[in-house]
Structures are given as C-alpha cells and as structure tokens.
Amino acid sequence: MIVVKVGGSEGINYEAVAKDAAALWKAGQKLILVHGGSSETNKIAEALGHPPQFLTHPGGMTSRLTDRRTLEIFEMVYCGLVNKRIVELLQREGVNAVGLSGLDGRIFEGRRKEAVKYVEGGKIKIHRGDFTGSVERVNTALLTLLLEAGYLPVLTPPAVSYEGDAINTDGDTAASMLATSLKAEALLLLSNVPGLLANFPDESSLIREIPAAKVGDPAYMAVAQGRMKKKVLGAVEAVQGGVGRVIFGDARVEQPIQKALAGAGTVVR
Amino acid sequence: MIVVKVGGSEGINYEAVAKDAAALWKAGQKLILVHGGSSETNKIAEALGHPPQFLTHPGGMTSRLTDRRTLEIFEMVYCGLVNKRIVELLQREGVNAVGLSGLDGRIFEGRRKEAVKYVEGGKIKIHRGDFTGSVERVNTALLTLLLEAGYLPVLTPPAVSYEGDAINTDGDTAASMLATSLKAEALLLLSNVPGLLANFPDESSLIREIPAAKVGDPAYMAVAQGRMKKKVLGAVEAVQGGVGRVIFGDARVEQPIQKALAGAGTVVR
C-alpha cells in the first residue's frame, strides 16, 4: 500500500498524477490518493468576494481562517472542483475511482478547534467560530471495503469533528495519519517543488535523503520554511509510526509517482 | 428501500430532510438520498462571472448549457457545497453518510451528448462541446456494499460517460433509474411545491393521486409545466419499471419524508 498526497499549490500536473496512479494501479499496486486545493480555493474565494485570511499561530505556523462561508468555499473547491477533476481523470484512464472527503463515512475524524489563537501586532488574540481541527483518527474500515472491492479512493479534507461538524484540516497531516494507520510501504508528499530544499527556493539545493532519526534535527527544521515545515513534521510522525519511507517529490513532472518511488526528491527512511 | 430525491430549487429545508432521513434510518428504514443544486449553481455561476445559459430543445424541454467551465461550477455546487452540507447534517444526527457523485464508482453511467440540438428564433441549431448526457445504467454494486456496511449514500449528479467524462444529467431521471434498479418500495421526488399542481403555481390545485396507467395521459402532461414535466416522465418510467409508488412531495416542511410517505403530495401508484 502506498499513500500519495498531491498538494494544492500552483503548477501541479493532475493529468500526470492520474495517469501515473492508473498505471501503477493496473499493475496491481494498491494505493490511495489524498489531495489539497489551497491555491484554487484562494482564487475562488477572491472571485466570490470573500478573500482568504490566514492566521499566524503563536508557534509560527499559519492556517486558513475558516468561518462558515470560507468552509463552504473550501468544500466547493476541494470536494467539488479538485476531487471530481481527479476522479474524472482516473475514470478516463479506466480506473474506478471513488472520491470522498473526511466527512464521508467519518474517514478523517478529529476535534474541532472552535477558538484559534493567533498573533497580531505582537499580541496573542483569539478567533472564535472557526471550523478547523486536527485529524486524530482515521477510519480505515470504509477504505479497506472500497479497496477490496476494486475502487481507488481519492480523499480530501475537510475532516469531521466528533460532533459531526465539517472541519478544515491539514491535508499532509491527514495523509500522514492515513499512511500510519495502514502501515503503508511509502507515503509520497508531492508538491510544486522537487523536494525539501536547503536553500528555498533554490531547486539545486535539494536534500536527497534524511535519516529518519534526524528528521526532527533542528538543522533540518531550520531549512524547512512555511508549509514545508508541516510536511517535515508529518514525515516525523509517519516514519515513527511505522511507514516504510516518506518521499517529498515533484508533482509538476511526468510520472511523478514512479519518479518519487525511484528516489527522486527527498527520501526520509 | 426508499429513494428520496431532494430538488435544488429555492426554499428546500435541508435540515428537515436530514433530520427526517436520520429518524427513519435509525428506525431501520434503508434509504438513499439523491439531491440537486440548480438554484445555488445559478447564483455561484453569476457571482463567478459565468452566468447560466439554458437551451430549449426541439421537444420543449430545457437544459443547462454545460461547457467545461459550467461543469466545474456545477461540480463545485452539487458535489462540494450541497453534497457535503447534507452529509454534514446527517453526521450531526449520528448517521454515517457517504456523499458520492455519479462519477464515483461509476454509479450513474450514460452516454455523453456532446452535440445538443436547441431552438433559437424558430430555428434548430446545434451546440457542440457540451458535457451533458442521460443516465442509462446505475451501478448498484457499490451502493449495496455501502448500505450493507451501514453507510447512508447521498448521491448527486454529474454522471460519468462511457469514456469517463463527467456529464451533467437530470437528477430526477437518475433517481428514477436508481429506484427502478433497486425495485424500491417508494421513490420520493421532493421540491419546493406540495406536489403536482393542476393550476401551477396555485398550491390549492394539488393533484392527490394519479393511477399509474394514467401517468402518461395527455391531460396530466398538459398540467405539468417546465421541470415538473421531467418529473412526471420520471414517474412513468419508475412505476412501469417496478417501483411501488412515486410521490411528489414538499421539501420545505418539517418531516418532509414521513409526510410524503403518509400520502401528502401527489401519489402515483
């Protein structure tokens, strides 16, 4: 089993991802796709007159402020536009894909964090009424049912809270928890960069390999900026949780999955 | 088994539909929900600067012109906004719902009608490049798998073409084919009117019952205007195909499903 997470930044080659996933699937490789959709969410949110807002947390992480309207736009793009685009591309390749969010069958379950701490002007403030949260549980029963019946699952945030609310959640972390739950041979985190870069955005500074024990090393964390930081944290958890290897790869190229599996990008083991 | 189709016009009480579906489901009633989303699609399409266009066909029916951009907006609203809203409402009621489009697992399969005939200025013209089609096959295997495992399916257009393209399709017809495939005891077509009206939009002119043999009667067809016409045609097919009864009911009220099952609205048997 391999879990392939495809980011939602500009430049992702969805056609290549779907074609490559289909080739592997037809060759007998069990896999699950997880995807994002942040850059298209930003565009649609702007176009609908509800521009994206991001909160910087006390720890330095940023997240999307998700009020009810933002959640609806998020669902439109992630569950509608991007999820069905990928399912359609797979169906065209002859693979019987099934697109699901974390709400469906409670696949990604977690705690809603209604009150979110953020930093503004050096002060810590609290935003209330947010629809965000962290995945704490992956319900693999539905996924196993689908896989055994020959369907390729294509998963996306939002997750579901224990009370049944939709919650915006980090897709990389969800994919990491999924790979851990399934004890996957590999977790691929594909985005619009070749992997983990020592000098971001200099693509020639690609880090080829990180020994698992050193993933949490401050030296590696220092080079991981912005969203890449979350990716590294996800890798730590996955490798510690029993995933064979985590690979940060490039989703802009042809055969992005096979190239990552062959060692292109940053390999964490 | 009952199939409940909830329309996509203004005024639908989704909370009431979900609450009612949950109550029946918990009492052991197997059911599948199918929904529309046309009025919200129109609003989002307007807001995104790609206003809806409708084609009038030579037979008098109208349908949404579905170019690629329209299809994307359609998927955002039907598969994202509306589908996940209903799934979330059911999850809040403690029902483990799974939202799927006709693309997912090829649930609703049909032929893409790329060239669509329409009437303009008294002349018959052809629009090419459309992503529409009619459902010809319902793949019940995935639905049976989900139902037997305790999941409530929440289905929506688009359907999938035999080549794997997403196709905009009429939700009522899809629900009717689904009910027929499952030999459902009842097919409920709930919208923002109390049922079939002899003098539309006079709600006091509700037709209480139509004997199945008379569904195709020109007298009944004459009173069925606009989209209601498609509903009547769907009822003909369903009853002829072995569905116990078809009920046109009101989705604006509390307990809309139980009221329709109790005989409110127009009953076709």
TrEMBL record, chains A, B:
Pfam families: AA_kinase. Residues 1-248 form the Aspartate/glutamate/uridylate kinase domain. It catalyses: [amino-group carrier protein]-C-terminal-N-(1,4-dicarboxybutan-1-yl)-L-glutamine + ATP = [amino-group carrier protein]-C-terminal-N-(1-carboxy-5-phosphooxy-5-oxopentan-1-yl)-L-glutamine + ADP. InterPro entries: AceGlu_kinase-like_sf, AcgluKinase_fam, Asp/Glu/Uridylate_kinase, Glu/AcGlu_kinase, LysZ. GO terms for cellular component: cytoplasm. Its EC number is 2.7.2.17. Pathway: Amino-acid biosynthesis; L-lysine biosynthesis via AAA pathway; L-lysine from L-alpha-aminoadipate (Thermus route): step 2/5. Substrate binds at R64, N168. Keywords: Amino-acid biosynthesis, ATP-binding, Cytoplasm, Kinase, Lysine biosynthesis, Nucleotide-binding, Transferase. One of its GO terms (molecular function) is acetylglutamate kinase activity. CDD domains: AAK_NAGK-UC. It is found in: Cytoplasm. GO terms for biological process: L-arginine biosynthetic process; lysine biosynthetic process via aminoadipic acid. The record marks K5, K231 as: Transition state stabilizer. Catalyzes the phosphorylation of LysW-gamma-alpha-aminoadipate. PANTHER family: [LYSW]-AMINOADIPATE KINASE (PTHR23342:SF20), N-ACETYLGLUTAMATE SYNTHASE (PTHR23342). Belongs to the acetylglutamate kinase family. LysZ subfamily. This is [LysW]-aminoadipate kinase. The gene is lysZ.
